[in-house]
Amino acid sequence: MKLARAHCSRAAALMGSGDKNRAIADYDESARLDPNSHLCRGFGNYARNAFDAAIVDFNKAITLNPRSPEAFLSGGLAYRAKGDLDRAIADYDEVIRLAPGNVLAFNNRGVALLQKQNYSRAIQDFDNAIQLEPSYSAAFVNRGNAFSYQSDLDRAIKDYTEAIRLDPKNAAAYQARGLTYRAMGDVVRARADFDQARTLAGR
Known about the structure:
Largest sheet: none
Number of strands: 0
Distance between the termini: 43 Å
Low-confidence stretches: none
Order of helices and strands: HHHHHHHHHHHH
Helix content: over 70%
Shape: globular
Radius of gyration: 19 Å
């Protein structure tokens, strides 16, 4: 059991560093050592884009522990990756019910609501995520996107700029701000942001 958990923990670290293939190998080894390691098996399936299989694993984990925020959060990720936004939102709802301070649940539910074009509710979720973690750069980018979709470009620029201040290497923030500057007719600033986004992305 301890060795299985060790492989799972190392896999998460490898995913965080971008070493996807080695992470999948560790997730698989964790599941082999502990057949009840449904979360780890699910993470492995999610990493290889086998979302249906991942959902089966996450649901098994929920059956074993119906009060596991991590299992519901993971299920939400897999459902959203499949495009099943309503079920993703339902899983994120459950995370928030079980763990009201879970920043990722608010942010991820906001992203799903954004995809459903429910911009006002999405902004509320991003507001909550930012209130819980004021340094969460991704939430500022996502809220900026919501403002942009509502044609509130000044507030979008403000959020993208804050995201960049918090994380100067956030390529998505530069790209989004560049698109917004272009929509506002500021070609010079747009080009500068696009150039910086490409540099950060290694292109």
